[in-house]
Amino acid sequence: MTERTHAAPPVLPVWERLARMAEGALSPFLEERDRWALWLPVLSGLGIVIYFALDAEPEGWTGLAVSALFAGILVLARRPAGLRPIFVALLAMAIGFAVAQWRTARVTAPMLDREIGPVAVEGRVVGQDLLPSGGVRVLLDRPMIERLEPERTPAQVRVRLTPSSGPLPTGVRIRVLAVLNGPSPPAIPGAFDFRRHAFFQRIGGVGYAVSAPEMLLPEESDAFMLLLERWRQRIGQRVYEVLEGDVAAITAALLNGERGAISEETNAAMRDSGLAHLLSISGLHIGLVATLVFGGLRLLLAFSERIALYYPIKKWAAVVALAVTFFYTLMVGAPVPTQRSFLMTGIVLCAVLLDRTAISMRLVAWAAAAVLALAPESLLGPSFQMSFAAVIALIAFYEAGSRHMARWREGAGWGRLLLLYGTGVVLTTLVASLATTPFAVYHFQRVATYGIAANMVAVPLTSFWIMPLALIFYLLAPFGLDHVALVPMGWGVAAVIEVARVTAAWPGAAAAVPAMPDWAIAAIAFGGLWICLWRRRWRWLGLLGVLAGVVGAALPTTPDILVSGDGKLMAVRGTEGGLVMSSARTGRFAQGIWLARNGQTEPEFWPDVGSSADNAFSCDPLACLYRRDGRTVALVRHPAAFEEDCFGVDAVVAAIPSPRWCRPPVMIDRFDLWRSGAHALHIGPTGIRVESVAGEVGDRPWSLKR
Length: 706
Hints:
The protein is an alpha+beta fold. Strands 12-11-10-9-19-20 form a 6-stranded mixed sheet. The chain has a 6-stranded mixed sheet with strand order 13-14-15-16-17-18.
């Protein structure tokens, strides 16, 4: 009898075993291989997020070197194939990181770190905004600033002129006596970083004039953008000649992009009614201009049977729509949201020229990749996040329901078509609102409760009345007949304002909510993308991410003590969860941000002398004591308080310099605030955790250097 032997299975190399494991993990997604490319902009965006999340600026070669590494692996290591998708993903992330580094290096310019002035400032006016108070704020390019060396001079500064100053000719050089400071850092760790936003706009100083501007001789310039700026200024002047008040301000915003003159009351009504997106020239407006021109011209050409049969009128209409949309983008100042919307619309029109599907998720992915390549910092802003969230959600929704909608439209009469249109407006508004609400909560800490109802009235009014008249205005303006379009356009704008005011006045129109943690919005965004970008059943696993983010948003971790960077304002958390402010007269800007991030509408204030009902908070003329979770914090207002309050407490927070002998476990004084900006303290049973703006921002090119 022969003994049967079994050969031992071959021992696979580690590389092969990893490859097989990767193939097993990716096998559920092989059926959707055609959707993999949609994730490349997402992965590139993740690389951008990683770059901005660093607490120190990486070496300039980092992104390029890592990108070259993964590109080399893909080229040289063709086997095993199972790992290739992983290296493609890593390469996309590295490219996003490298693009963000390149953009930062490209726009880097000096920024002011302290207040200077009054000093003489001379520069060329390249932009200006009308303010609700009637004043003017100008943007000066390549300024010369008294007592400031050229190597420390910002590339651009923004100066608010004296109230008596009117609009200035664009392109003229002016000299003005002004007080300048650097763009403000965040008012609280984790809040909006205006200084970083200004850095990428190359604005290194902001301030106000203390003298009337002296106009110098205009520069000879053939700059096309300056010519456009003059046209925009003339459009604004013409609007204010025909219309007045907020109707004129919003009409001007739709025609030349100037939003600064809209009153705070109307801005608040538009925001609380969910109509604020109508004031920002973005996807809706650019899409309407393209649709009106494309559809109108194609319909007009179709009246000629010969032209319709023998010429590509669809492509002609696409070319004209692309040109008109580009013109409109320039006329409204071409801000980043408008550039992004034009890019997306341009890709759609180019798809028409190439006989491809006009609107698809793949085209949106290309648009996102292009926007991130040109302005990677826009990924962090609400405009990018909300517009792409709305577009992606709408395309995914209509992809899933396209068969049903085609069946409903088949053989439909006017009655059914009208019903389908109304249903479409409701569904589109609902889907877009659901997609954008988490980002609105994250950035603005407000929810417009009746936004769907307001949009059902305002969006059709904007689509079929206001924007068509805006195009007619441009056509008639060269002939001096623009008032024919401006007057009825003003009626439409007035109706939208009335819708906003009525809706905002309804009970509970706007709900204030606390700031959402970063990880919560990231979970919602990833979960939403998982649902929208895949097509199979496993797409619904994204609901887990959305649910986790919603839970995180409902359980915010808010600070117990806040201190402004200049030490003039402090706040503590009261027993009911609201912030109690140290002053009603100072730090109003910071106070507004603190209240918003706490989900609070009205502030409370410290007593000058006395104690709270539960004795958790007590004040005397020199200092206040705050007790929470067994910890005691002294909030010092006068130097004499140090002798008593430096001992037996867990922390001292002082708006003044502290003596060297005062060293409690946690010490924050005027020098700490000056160096590190605003502070936030979280008090718990295990101790006190301190956060600062400098610690949050890190050592980056836009950081405030002390």
